Amino acid sequence: MQPAPAPTPAPPTGRGRWAGRAVVLLRCLAAGATIALSIPPFGWWPLAFLGVAQWDLLVAGQRPAARARRTFLVCCAWLFPMMLWMYDLTPPGYVIASVGYSVFFSSLVVWVPAHRPALRSVGMVAAISLGELWRWCWPFEGVPLATLAESQADAPLAQAARLLNAIGVSMLVAVGGVAVAAAVERRWRAAGVGLAVLVTVPLLGLVAPRGTVVEGAAPVRVAIVQGGGRQRTPFEADPVDVFRRHLQATERITAPVDLVVWPENVLEPSGPHLDGSPEDRQLRALAQRLHAPIIVGVTEDDSPSTFVNYSIVYNPDGTVGDRYDKARRVPFGEWVPFRSLITAAVGSGGIPARDAVPGTAPAVVRTTAGPVGLMISWEVFFTDRGADGVAHGAEIIANPTNGSSYWLTQVQTQQIASSRLRAIETGRWELQAAPTGFSTVIDPSGRMVDCDRQAADGTVTTGRC
Asked: pLDDT for 66-90, tens place per residue?
């Protein structure tokens, strides 16, 4: 006689069902919050693997609708707090971006074969990697902030960027997370394979080809100018005062330098154009006095509905050299997608009145200190801008930025993380210049270095930039 099959347990009802849903909700929120805490300004990077592991376990064995719901909750708990900076720029854009990217991840995880553990691990890595790539590209030309890659800028895994760039680093975070989940489920082979990948790829990144020191070449002495001022000054800052602060700070440079880097858009000409303006004459004279090129960030009117944002070189002989126009613009900050539709729906209040004209030239300028690759502010979040500068001969890369215009410190700290990844990817020293708070020098291994700092009273100290 065959034994009678065990009875199938009845699904929970009433309080049991609601208690189960509450537990799942808390697990989803905890997974997303754990990922959020791994990203700057918090930067507790090991938590990224734990958050992804919990996410993987949450979708295990679930139907497509449940996988979509749980993934959506995980991503909302990750992205809503870590993209809060956008609320100050555009509240509707903040909600749309956070919800939209959560939906992106949900639509990908739906296709993960959740009932087959080995395939689920592969599928989760693919879904998370594609979701991160999606955010780098679309919509609004991409908004790649609060990424898994940024969580690893201060971790050993960052060295993998030299081989796989930042999107590959995000993929490796997913590999590590599903490996932890496999260990929880006692799938030791899958966990071992994931661990082997996490160890091997960064080690290969450490020995991969990178920029090298030119034999016999003298070191480049660089001055990064940070004029100071109040944080969160997108509209009320006085352009004359901003320029004056940076001019005065530069005039205090007494040691010999080979290159001076100013932040983004700290010069708004008093005349219709920079050429021939009083600011132009002052900068020509300053470059001659320092016997060094100065890279200056400028915004200038282009038409009643457009403006340009660029960096320009003032040569040591007082002439004006190369210019690079910012190619990637901040959505809802430097250009407004679907402007006519948004204006018709909610009016023009609270959105920029003009759009920036995107540049099309290579991301490099020639100076007497050598070719310098440029990524102006927002561009540092995109892997292609640093690579474009290096492809056109850049020996140093620079990120002139204006982090003072953002609320909180999320953008600025994530920008530092991205600068560190760009330095690793390109194998170049990187110089980040900001008017307030977040200027630094980064070596080709992604390490922020100590450097001399000159205070307003002329005293010089050595410390972390």
From this structure: 999 999 999 999 999 999 988 887 7
